[in-house]
TrEMBL record:
N-terminal signal peptide: none
Subcellular location(s) of the protein: Cytoplasm
The keyword DNA-binding belongs to this UniProt entry's keyword annotation: yes
Main subcellular location of this protein, as a coarse class: cytoplasm
Residues in Response regulatory domain copies: 8-125
Keywords carried by this UniProt record: Activator, Cytoplasm, DNA-binding, Phosphoprotein, Transcription, Transcription regulation, Two-component regulatory system
InterPro entries: 2C-system_Tx_regulators, CheY-like_superfamily, Sig_transdc_resp-reg_cit/mal, Sig_transdc_resp-reg_receiver, Tscrpt_reg_IclR_N, WH-like_DNA-bd_sf, WH_DNA-bd_sf
Protein name per Swiss-Prot or TrEMBL: Transcriptional regulatory protein
PANTHER family registered for this protein in UniProt: TRANSCRIPTIONAL REGULATORY PROTEIN DCUR-RELATED (PTHR45526:SF1), TRANSCRIPTIONAL REGULATORY PROTEIN DPIA (PTHR45526)
Record-listed 4-aspartylphosphate modification sites: 59
One Pfam family of this chain: Response_reg
PROSITE patterns, per the entry: RESPONSE_REGULATORY
């Protein structure tokens, strides 16, 4: 397991009021730390080279160059690797598409609520943790979860998922010392194994639960789950 450390963040926006608000919001999220603020594109590139942030919150309207150009230059070999989440008031489909083509992981529309930003950062942190686990993915499903984790709305809940049962699963899983299987969890909360597995997979997709295969004597893996 890699050593846990803060995810460093660079905020890029030409409005000091916006950067101050984002600074306060980011620093309230456990596991994140703002290391720099830039109000122009050139200042953003210089700050990225200096601080090597893991994540850049990037506005698209900057006084000296388009934000999309900044995103493009951040991907150059001479720049330290950084992930980009766009925070912009622009809603045109062409702009969103261009941001994706420039490598943006996500696109938040201004004004961004603190809760929305927090959930986005937490999903990003869950994605980082999965990618830095150092292991090898055993199944396509595990890779699918990583690609979905940044884009899955945590507020959306399928009709087959009850909020009360979802919370019961999380509470029960929080009480186990290490991890639990769907069969074990089913016995703990009084549901069928299939129901427990469905809720565990849903929570794993949301990045709240981590599932890993454990191989027994027969060689067939048993999926074990724990709260992140």
């Amino acid at each position: 397991m890699p050593e846990l450390r803060d995810i460093t963040v660079l905020i890029v926006d030409d409005d000091p009021v916006v950067t101050a608000a984002l600074h306060a919001q980011v620093n309230r999220v456990l596991g994140f730390r703002v290391v720099g603020i830039a109000h122009t594109g050139h200042a953003a590139l210089a700050a990225a080279a200096r601080f090597a942030p893991r994540l850049v919150l990037l506005d698209l309207h900057l006084p000296d160059m388009p934000g999309l150009e900044v995103a493009h230059r951040l991907r150059r070999p001479e720049q330290p690797p950084a992930d980009v989440i766009v925070v912009s008031g622009r809603k045109e489909s062409a702009t969103v598409r261009a941001a994706i083509q420039r490598g943006a992981l996500y696109y938040l529309v201004k004004p961004t609520r603190a809760g929305t930003l927090e959930q986005t950062l937490l999903r990003y942190a869950a994605t980082v943790e999965q990618l830095e686990s150092g292991g090898r993915f055993a199944e396509q499903q595990e890779i699918d979860r990583i690609f979905r984790s940044m884009h899955l709305d945590p507020a959306s809940r399928p009709k087959s998922i009850s909020a009360a049962t979802e919370q019961a699963v999380l509470d029960a899983l929080s009480e186990v010392e290490e991890d639990a299987s769907a069969h074990e969890l089913a016995g703990m909360i009084g549901v069928s194994r299939a129901t427990a597995r469905r809720y565990l997979e849903h929570l794993a997709d949301r990045g709240l639960v981590e599932g890993r295969p454990r191989y027994g004597p027969t060689g067939r893996p048993q999926h074990r789950y724990r709260v992140r």
